Write the structure tokens for this entry.
Amino acid sequence: MSFFAAVGQFSAFAGLSVSHVFRAPFFPKNFLKQIVSIGYYSLPVVGLTTFFTGMVLALQSYTGFTRFNAESAIASVVSLSITRELAPILAGLMVAGRVGASIAAEIGTMRVTEQIDALRTLSVNPFKYLVVPRLIAGTLTLPILVLIGDLIGIMGGYIVSVHVLGFSAGSYLSQSWDVLQPMDVISGLAKAAVFGFIVTIMGCYHGFNSGRGAQGVGAATTNAVVTSSILILIFNYILTQVFFS
Amino acid sequence: MSEAVQTPKISMRDVRKSFGTKKVLNGIDLDVAEGESCVIIGGSGTGKSVTLKCVLGLIKPDSGSIKIDGTEITEMDNDDHEDVMSKFGMLFQGGALFDSLPVWENVAFGLIHGRKMDREEAREIAMQKIEAVGMGRQVGDLYPAELSGGMQKRIGLARAIAANPEIIFFDEPTTGLDPIMADVINDLIVKCVKDLGATALSITHDMASARKIADKVTMIHEGKLIWTGSVEELDNSNNEYVDQFIHGRAEGPITKHANMV
């Protein structure tokens, strides 16, 4: 029962948040601040994750593919796996850890120290001031992060294939490029937008409903990361099914 | 007070609120006249904060009526409620300053975002309010975390009065302060409320504070107001609950009732 109550409560929260996205007043300064903190500051962690994943992918497929003389497929495997699957899911999970946790902790602390009540007494709607800028920033910046992650991941595969495994640079790059269909990249970016929404709405929801004290904020932070990670994995499957079946 | 029929600024009738099975407010009736300073006294967990938050609209009561200037607020939707909020100023117990913003922007917050005032103009008013609570303008550029507890309370007060509200709420204004700073805050509250001609509703368990800032005192016990009178009547209330509370005795009807001794 309590599970259904929580789902209902969350749906009401999400509906209310989205309804405020389209209604003035807007807080552009907060939005820009969130773009920087959610998008820009996530670049290193997303870049590093996709870089090493691209490298390891090339290495793994080489050792596997040599068993049936299919080394030439490495470039295509790397670029397809990175753009369709690995860059969005890894970026989503890394941002869930980095951004989801910080949103939940910040808003949870504001709840506990009555700063959210203070916003309301100053005639400022906390959904518009706190939730909407984070939601939009998350939904818009994650696709950009993933696009950059796509490039870095493919570059990681390229470096290993060319400098470690001795493939020719030109043919590797043309193989990487030729195999890609627009839909491969677009589906990854669409996934990223959904993941960005999931991470930010979960961070805001758990922060808003944080319990009292340090323990309450701690639990809110954990719940934000766990629920958004699980939802990302579930939606990753659903979206893949929608795009490619 | 001499007018025969004056609409009370705040009027509560049979306000009830439960959290789960716990009845926190058990039928609150309270009128506060325009320009009057009413203080609700009572122990911890008796429903003081919930009463205040119901009037502010931060908590929705289960039943009963709350009117501000004769207008019912419990049935209002969010947008109308934001309009009512613009009549209010609130000093939170812990200050509740926004730690991501400098002090002056905290004070000017309601002016900039609530009233859409130009930032430079709002900054000037904020600086005047910071001076009005006895602090220098240079404090305006600090961040809340750099201030002591007493200074945060004073900035909280400056923020509460920045938009010249008609009604100001004080939540335990002296809790956590040393006796001297507590008296400074009390003096500032009296001065600010008088200067603005505002109506004030405060909750406290600090009797020194209550005596100083109140015109009218009312005592809450187990979610009901059990005694109301002027500050002068407080010492001759003939109410054993009030007597126990104002003298701070461990033994008496309040504790006996709750099986605490």
Notes: The two ends of chain A are 35 Å apart (CA to CA). The mean pLDDT of chain A is 94. Chain A touches chain B through 15 residues (CB under 8 Å).
